[in-house]
């Protein structure tokens, strides 16, 4: 047993997959050395999981094969066309998980992850996002029994025509392997040290003013340190929000409230509402809230920009958007929009627990800095911190998505949906820290509950999968990723102008 567990965490298991059995990009048979590798790790999964041990099979809990119907009343059967008609346009919403059909029309309003994120899959198969977002799938399925109305007819395929069956099969195999290797388990020491480094920076910011006074240089140093605290706390709350630290949801939710509420002054419910939609349908217009800036501020993506031009719509001079992005994008998002909108959100939705956590943040920083700076100085410090944090946040979060494909939802398979909308930034100690490991955006989107310290371990397997299926796996230097944001805005703005004038 110890040898088996050691094999799961041994990085050489990656070599087995890349050399011996995992998603060969060119050759159909095992490469030299595969037989020796399999002899060394007899319990490593084969290309079709034939060597997976019974214990490993129980642990992965991601079998996508149709389940044997339980004894009882004959289930009602449906076709994909019938499911597709219940996409919410007539208020009725159905979706499919592992060939079983669920009516979520009423439940969507009570869905813990938010009504919109589950409704975005109405009329579609939601098997892969269901597996990706939930850490206790067995418990969730018990609550889903009351929503079950039938299953797909036996003659119906397990996949909709718009989805790549072979790619999906291979990805599901990859996910089973990732779970078998233990890559979905967090190193709590990593996150403890990460939290401690944030708290130490927070204390260092206050000590800078207390020891050196409130002149210009100490004030700037304090503001930079506090901005770093806010940015890094933002990446840490992201980990807890995705349930990627603890094995139980309750502990993740508690720490999420503490980090985003008490350390940052923002509501967890607002983050959940926005971010899970983004992950469910990234870069899908009207489903990804990160694209809400289109069309009132920016024309995004080649397809949507041309559409806007043909419709003769001009809310802004989009051909200059790559210039005014520097004015209303990175510097303004947090201090001029999020700062007031988050309070509007929690009060309108009566999220009083979130409001209490937010107030605790402002009380803490008020009592900490007003004695040193006075009220005006404190407000000035807070604005500067939000300004610096906003620049940091926008450049990092947009470098992986804005330059990528943007369109309406085409109901593609999970892997294609995520890969066409995301790209990576090269790994380095600084890039990992600066972006909170969101430079591994591809791996994060494919496995949203995976602890961030394991992204680099699964990356070679994802690259192999992409190579086999001819999918571009983009990874670029940090500064190039920043520049691509501006280049893509300039290109889409020019496409809008050409369509506006000539089509």
From TrEMBL:
What topology does the record note for this protein and the membrane? Multi-pass membrane protein
Q: What is the name of the protein in this document? A: Acyl-CoA (8-3)-desaturase
Gene3D superfamilies to which the protein is assigned, alphabetical:
Cytochrome b5-like heme/steroid binding domain
Q: Name the InterPro entries for this protein.
A: Cyt_B5-like_heme/steroid-bd, Cyt_B5-like_heme/steroid_sf, FA_desaturase_dom, Fatty_acid_desaturase
Domain Cytochrome b5 heme-binding: start-end pairs: 75-153
Q: Name one Pfam family in it.
A: FA_desaturase
Q: Which UniProt keywords apply?
A: Acetylation, Electron transport, Endoplasmic reticulum, Fatty acid biosynthesis, Fatty acid metabolism, Lipid biosynthesis, Lipid metabolism, Membrane, Mitochondrion, Oxidoreductase, Transmembrane, Transmembrane helix, Transport
- Does the UniProt entry include the keyword Transmembrane? yes
What PROSITE patterns does its record include? Answer: CYTOCHROME_B5_2
Under Enzyme Commission nomenclature, its number is 1.14.19.44
Any GO BP annotation? unsaturated fatty acid biosynthetic process
Question: Composition bias, kind Low complexity: at what positions?
Answer: 25-34
Q: Which reaction does it catalyse?
A: (11E)-octadecenoyl-CoA + 2 Fe(II)-[cytochrome b5] + O2 + 2 H(+) = (5Z,11E)-octadecadienoyl-CoA + 2 Fe(III)-[cytochrome b5] + 2 H2O; (8Z,11Z,14Z)-eicosatrienoyl-CoA + 2 Fe(II)-[cytochrome b5] + O2 + 2 H(+) = (5Z,8Z,11Z,14Z)-eicosatetraenoyl-CoA + 2 Fe(III)-[cytochrome b5] + 2 H2O; (8Z,11Z,14Z,17Z)-eicosatetraenoyl-CoA + 2 Fe(II)-[cytochrome b5] + O2 + 2 H(+) = (5Z,8Z,11Z,14Z,17Z)-eicosapentaenoyl-CoA + 2 Fe(III)-[cytochrome b5] + 2 H2O
Compartment annotation: Endoplasmic reticulum membrane; Mitochondrion
**A GO MF label:** acyl-CoA (8-3)-desaturase activity
Q: Which family does it belong to?
A: Belongs to the fatty acid desaturase type 1 family.
Pathway assigned to this chain's UniProt record = Lipid metabolism; polyunsaturated fatty acid biosynthesis
- Residue ranges spanning the membrane: these are 190-210, 324-347, 359-385
Gene assigned in the entry: FADS1
What GO cellular-component annotations does this UniProt entry give? endoplasmic reticulum membrane; mitochondrion
Chain positions covered by the region annotation Disordered: 25-76
């Amino acid at each position: 047993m110890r040898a088996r567990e050691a094999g799961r965490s041994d990085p050489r298991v990656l070599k087995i997959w890349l050399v011996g059995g995992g998603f060969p990009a060119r050759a159909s048979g095992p490469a030299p050395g595969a037989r020796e590798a399999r002899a060394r790790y007899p319990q490593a999964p084969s290309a079709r999981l034939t060597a997976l041990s019974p214990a490993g099979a129980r642990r992965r809990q991601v079998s996508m094969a149709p389940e044997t119907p339980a004894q009882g009343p004959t289930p009602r059967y449906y076709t994909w066309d019938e499911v597709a008609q219940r996409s919410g346009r007539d208020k009725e919403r159905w979706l499919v998980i592992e060939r079983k059909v669920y009516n979520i029309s009423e439940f969507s309003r009570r869905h813990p992850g938010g009504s919109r994120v589950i409704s975005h899959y109405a009329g579609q198969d939601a098997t892969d996002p269901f597996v990706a977002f939930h850490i206790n799938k067995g418990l969730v399925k018990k609550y889903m029994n009351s929503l079950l109305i039938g299953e797909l007819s036996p003659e119906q395929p397990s996949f909709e025509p718009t989805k790549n069956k072979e790619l999906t099969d291979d990805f599901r195999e990859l996910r089973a392997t990732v779970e078998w290797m233990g890559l979905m388990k967090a190193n709590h020491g990593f996150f403890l040290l990460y939290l401690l480094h944030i708290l130490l920076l927070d204390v260092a910011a206050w000590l800078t003013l207390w020891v050196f006074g409130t002149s210009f240089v100490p004030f700037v140093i304090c503001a930079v340190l506090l901005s770093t605290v806010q940015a890094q706390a933002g990446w840490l709350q992201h980990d807890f929000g995705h349930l990627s630290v603890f094995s139980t949801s309750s502990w993740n939710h508690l720490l999420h409230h503490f980090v985003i509420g008490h350390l940052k002054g923002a509501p967890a419910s607002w983050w959940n509402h926005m971010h899970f939609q983004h992950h469910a349908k990234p870069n899908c217009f009207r489903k990804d809230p990160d694209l809400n800036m289109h069309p009132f501020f920016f024309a995004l993506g080649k397809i949507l920009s041309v559409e806007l031009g043909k419709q003769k719509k001009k809310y802004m001079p989009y051909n200059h958007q790559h210039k005014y992005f520097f004015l209303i994008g990175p510097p303004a998002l947090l201090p001029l929009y999020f700062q007031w909108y988050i309070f509007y959100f929690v009060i309108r939705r009566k999220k009083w627990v979130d409001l209490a956590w937010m107030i605790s943040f402002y009380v803490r920083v008020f009592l900490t800095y007003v004695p040193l700076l006075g009220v005006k100085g404190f407000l000035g410090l807070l604005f500067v911190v939000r300004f610096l944090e906003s620049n940091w946040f926008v450049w990092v979060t947009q470098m992986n998505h804005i330059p990528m494909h943007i369109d309406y939802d085409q109901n593609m398979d999970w892997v294609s949906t995520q890969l066409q909308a995301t790209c990576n930034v090269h790994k380095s100690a600084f890039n990992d820290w600066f972006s909170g490991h969101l430079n591994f955006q591809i791996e994060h989107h494919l496995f949203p509950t995976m602890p961030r310290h394991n992204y680099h371990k699964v990356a070679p397997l994802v690259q192999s999968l992409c190579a086999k299926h001819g999918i571009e796996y983009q990874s670029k230097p940090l500064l190039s990723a920043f520049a691509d944001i501006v280049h893509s805005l300039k290109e889409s703005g020019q496409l809008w102008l050409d369509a506006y004038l000539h089509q």
